[in-house]
Amino acid sequence: MIDGASGAAAQTRGAPAISPTNFEGLSDDDNIDLTTWSTWPADSQLAVGPDHVFEVVNIVGRIYDKNGNTLDSFALIDFFDVPDGYIDFDPKVIYDAFTGRWFASYVSIFDDELGPDEALLHVAISQTSDPTDAWNLYTQPYEDVFPDYPGIGITNDKFTISADLYDIDGPPGFIGPGCQPEVGFCGQETIVIEKADVVAGLPAVSVDIAYFDPALRETVRPAHSLSPINDQYLVTFSTSAPDLLTMLRVTGTPSEGNVTEFIAANLTILPQEVPPPSITAGDADCIIFTENLGPPPCIESSDRRALEAIWRNDRLWLGASAACLPPGDETTRSCAHLIELNTSGAPSVVQDIMYGAPGNYYSFPALRTDAAGNLYVVVAHTNPSIFAEARVTGRLAGDPPNTLADSALLRAGEVVHDSGRWGDYLGAAVDPSQPLCVWVVGQFAKDTEGADWGTQIAALSYSGACGGAPPPPTDTPTPTNPPPTATPTRTSTPQPTATRTRTPTATPSPLFGDVSCNETVDSIDAALILQYGADLLSRLACPESADVNQDGSINSIDAALVLQYVAGLLPRLPP
Partners of 376 in the beta sheet? Predict the structure, then answer.
């Protein structure tokens, strides 16, 4: 499916109208202002209630009224009451129109040098429909592993969280038994919580936890149910075949002790392969995690895992990034893969859309349907002539199958984003007061003091329920780059998504190698540098001390220098 807005053949319908209610959201500058940390990727999420818009990014949150006025801003470590010393990441938030409550989740880990490592899955449920009122907080503890990349879903009687489990120590540290030694992937977990218990704020709630071996599956996405249903639908892409999608179904409740998960269907889809990085304009290298692919610059397009799922009236939609070859193109690109399933009777694939365009890259689709079944999608978009930007598209329920509208610009990118990491997800939410209005949050490259990302929030509608469409908030940028050569395709090995961080300013005259900030340099510092350089650790107490050889990068060479110094093989490290 080609996006005609790219200059290719146009489709018959335009994107949903962007209402005058669109405004800039959180950026990395807000991270720095509220926490002193600069972090990436943004992990943008959005939920909408009767009177409020709630945005979260990787480590901070903000509550707005529906005109975009800020009502409250806060660090998520404070909102979720994260213990001191824990590293925090991966926020999610949804609004449940049937109970009038907000549901949120978060993850924190503590890498203990002297004892077992610990992690917490944080869950928060509002006490009213006003997110500025009190919330009830719950935690699920872990030892030696942490729940990465959680997805949340909801039904009439269930609140469901699915996450991938990774070893906190590695690699390169010790990997626990049963985990994959290459990446420390330890399996997949689905937690079903009695919804009535947490809505009532009970101190002890009924929970059912199911664990699955890492060889069996990864990254399951529970659906956010937008119409009444008891059963929880979930989806996951097969790890054994790129064209196989598994639909799961959970029945029963924890309070009755009869929670049962079963495979509802294995369905054939368009091949779901790992996409290449998304090339952008600018002068910088393409760096994905610790791999430098050279110029031109890029953003990560995600891997092949499902990003999110939503269910309404026997239709389930899910989205993901995927490798594709757009018609008329000769180079593999990243496309937005959107799949609609019929869940009634014998489950089937209704639509299977690979959305892209020659020379362009689309990734991180977030989606919702309105009360009429119309689809709204926000995506990340790049090509070699523009910086990373946010665009929106969609389709009416009655449009021809497997078609999607030409995209419209939500917010143009302003600068080159050179950290590589993008996403890891965007957000969309139905307005419970205007059920034909859907809100989205997109991400764009923004000039900040730190990681150069920002977000844009907008209300969309095909019916005018949110208002008319103003001009785009910024003009399309003009920088150009020569067309890239074929982009290397990444492997499909799952990687943890815990957010890597850096500080906005360096401490004068650091003690190089002392990343623990305890005024000594030892083998523990070497291990921490290795984990940080491999994006397996999100923060260092003194990150300015990690680049021991001062070559502008943090990697195994720096860790080796520390080990040689500790062993007496080097007389000193840089002062």
Answer: 368, 394
Model confidence at 565, pLDDT cuts 50, 70, 90, reads: low
Q: Report the alpha-carbon distance of residue 91 to residue 494 in Å, rounded.
A: 20
Torsion of CA 443, 444, 446, 450, to 10 degrees: 40
CA distance 195 to 156: 8
Fold of 505-566: Type 1 dockerin domain (1.10.1330)
Q: What pLDDT does 29 receive?
A: 98
Read off the pLDDT of residues 458-479 as tens digits, 9 standing for 90 and up.
999 999 999 644 434 333 333 3
- CATH 1.10.1330.10 range(s) for the chain read 505-566
CA gap 203, 208 in Å, rounded: 16
- φ/ψ bin of 68: left (φ > 0), alpha (ψ from -120 to 50), beta (otherwise): left
Helix, coil or strand: residue 34: helix
Q: What percent of the chain has pLDDT over 90?
A: 72
Gap between the Cα atoms of 290 and 492, Å rounded: 16
Rg (CA), the chain: 23
pLDDT grade for 7, boundaries at 50, 70 and 90:
low
Q: Which band of pLDDT confidence, cut at 50, 70 and 90, is reported for residue 8?
A: low
CA distances from 28 to 56, 190, 325, 428 (A): 12, 31, 33, 20
Instruction: Give the predicted TM-score (pTM) of the model.
Output: 0.83
Architecture in CATH for domain 4-461: 7 Propeller (2.130)
Which residues of the chain does CATH 2.130.10.10 include?
4-461
Of 441, 426, 414, 472, the C-alpha closest to 301 is 426
The answer to whether 105 touches 89, Cβ cutoff 8 Å, is no
Q: β-pairing, 244-251 with 375-383?
A: unpaired
